[in-house]
Amino acid sequence: MRKVSLRNLAAHKLRLLLTVLSVVLGTSFVAGSMIFTTTVKNSFNGIFDQVAVGVDAQISPKDSGTLGVPDSLIATIEKDKRGLGVDQVVTTYTAPITIAAADGKALSTGGAPSVGSGYLPPAGSLDPSSTTILPGGRAPRGSHEVAINESAAKKAGLQVGSRTQVVVGTGSSVPMTVTVVGLEKMAGATSGYTEVDFAQPVARQLFSDGRHASTVQLSAVAGVSPEQLTSRIEKITPSILKVQTGAEVRQSDKDSVNQFLDVFNYILLAFAAIGLIVGTFIIYNTFSMIVAQRVREMALLRAIGTSRRQLTRAVLLEAFVVGLVGSAVGLGAGVGIAAALQALTASSGLPQGSLMLGVSPVVACLLVGVVVTMVSAYAPARRASQVSPVEAMRESQTDGQASILVRTLIAAVLAAIAAVLVAVGASGQGGNAATTVGIGAMCGIIAVVLGAPALAGPVVGLLGRIFAAPFGKIGRLARTNAMRNRRRTAATAFALTLGLMLVAVIGTLGSSFKGSIDHAVDAGLNANLVITDSQGVLRPQIAQQVAKVDGIASVVRISPVAATVDGKQVGGSAAHGDLESVTPYTMLGGASSTIPPNGIIVSSKTSADKGWHRGDTVTFTSLAGATVPVTVTGVYRDAQLLGPWQLGEAAYQKLVPKPLQQDSFVLVKTEPGVSQDAVQARIGDVTDGYLTVKVQNRAEFKGQQSSQIDTMLTVLYAMLGLALVIAVLGIVNTLALSVVERKREIGMLRAVGMARAQVRRTIYLESFLIAVFGALLGMVIGVFFGWGLARTFRQWGLTTIVLPWNLIAITMAGAAVAGVLAALWPAIRAARTKPLEAIADL
């Protein structure tokens, strides 16, 4: 039987190639994602191995919302160095920074950090090899001199002697003109990382309030271990700070990056899983057709004594070989995908390194490919083994009406459960609404798998009457062919259904988010102009300068606030200025819309969730430990732009230290009758030196928010393209094998006068009907699931559900075209069938 199986594979090379290809497409993405993330992890680990080298203990803030390590603690350590076992104390000062490239525009880091720091010469650092000034430059000394890491300088087009602008994230927060006096060779700098070093006294002035350091690094005297030193320092360190050994600092950095990469890997593997699921149906369909084509061959084997178990094992052996070959090729393709991902992310700040194949991707790829293929082939193999030799000799192939009836009844029950779960989740009931909708979607997908054969008959029949009718008898024949084996039609179409269902879900979410943004801006924003920063935060001084521009009626800063209440972290905003002039909101219960200096107004949702009612006192605790009691003076109707609560000015000043104060955005109301474009231009002149500040009108602001969603959707659609490619290849595969199966039938049609062009047209129409059926089913259930999921995101501001009609129309048209294109090769093969040879092929 092994010889029979292997010779069967060798004798049908085209069939083998088509089946292997479906496995390759599924497994290659698994291998590619694992190789890529393993490579990036190893590269990052190599970088972080250079962090905190020579450091035995490091003191740093637990949260970013604190000022840093107080000078008083540093003085205590310096005073008792011998008692604590400290040899050397090194203070560092750092903060986010933006530097202009040679063209005057902000240097893009692709998401990698861009920080300013105090320059530490080798003699003053615990790791003398950490930073080296390259020949031709020197260390910064003056207040407007900087050294910059070599990779960032090269990207920015800067060199020793270049003059440029920098904007500091905290401290003075004003644009500065600086001169590059040195280029640094840094251990472990990533491709996008930027570090701008000032002289240490200048860094202290720019990056701190003068009473705190960003971190403090310590080395231990001989005989004191890092763990002992850390333990001693912890005893004198406030709870808002953390003390770590150098090894813990390195491991913490690795863990944070690896956690991000794990999430990224999960996303990649999720799309790989989609490809595998689609591929599974194609493999299942392929083996079902192969078994059906070999029914007489298997009957002969049964007649000469082959057992059912041997037949099953023979088919599974073929599946094993196909899975093994497909996985091996998929592994090679995965290396190419990993290289492509690395090239695409070269400008994103991720480090570049040699691809790491490793054992895990190889094992995962082989196991997934082989297991998926054998599982997909098991049902057809078992079904074939149960056919008696006499029945098989008749070559009678039916859909199994009784089986379809049972499947349809189960599908109807699951569809009803899915509809209820999606409706419950969409209403916000039943605990985690998104999970409820997700479970409903899974039930719905299983219902489609089971019930699609029952739907294939009437739906394909109706589509055939509409689209195939103009082609006369050719159209009726194509319709009959598509309806003849409903299981095969459903299985072939489901590959496309699943891919387009996901496209519809994502499209519905994307269009709804964009619609909600448009609604929120149109209904909740009276401001004419919005000032934002591409780095995420604005300096408070910007609003002060903008307020001096002619033609402005009011300027309102919206600042983020992070604190804890009863030990739980909360986040909201503080408005500086006349909030009602730039965004309308409705107070409930007759409360005043004015925010008292030491008060707070809250949204109706926040009031209900947290129990904060008018007249209550809420005690906020800053991340630095300061407590600020505030009084709830009113509740406003939920407004997306206002967020959960708005804090009074005096309370904000007490809660957020001045060096840490920053704005999310600034809203500007122009004076009546003044040219808005002219005011926007004048504000642009004022903010131009800040490099990353944007001044936008309402339409531009909506466009920017929508463009971020469009970018995300483009990435998701590109990744879903894998599933759609596999789905189209599945149609090609099915039609090609169908042509082989119907060779005698096609020969008879050619013998009675059907022209080659008519044969091709029949295959085109059949493929068209299958593709449109799959696309229609995917769009309907995808939009329904997308609607349910979108309803669960109301608490994140998704208030308007918008169906993606353009996407639906484009997708349906694309599916029809894909169906015709998928039929090109099978149709040509069918048209070349020689009548006499086909009829004689008994």
Automatic annotation (TrEMBL):
Cite the MacB-like periplasmic core domain residue spans from the record. 17-235, 489-684
Q: Which Gene Ontology molecular function entries are recorded, alphabetically?
A: transmembrane transporter activity
Q: Where in the cell is it found?
A: Cell membrane
Instruction: Pinpoint the ABC3 transporter permease C-terminal domain residues.
Output: 270-389, 718-835
Keyword terms, alphabetized:
Cell membrane, Membrane, Transmembrane, Transmembrane helix
Q: How does it sit in the membrane?
A: Multi-pass membrane protein
Q: Where are the transmembrane segments?
A: 266-293, 314-341, 361-381, 402-426, 438-468, 489-509, 715-740, 763-787, 807-828
Q: Name one GO cellular component term.
A: plasma membrane
Signal peptide span? none
Q: What is its main location?
A: membrane
**Stated family:** Belongs to the ABC-4 integral membrane protein family.
This protein's name: FtsX-like permease family protein
Q: What organism does the record attribute this protein to?
A: Leekyejoonella antrihumi
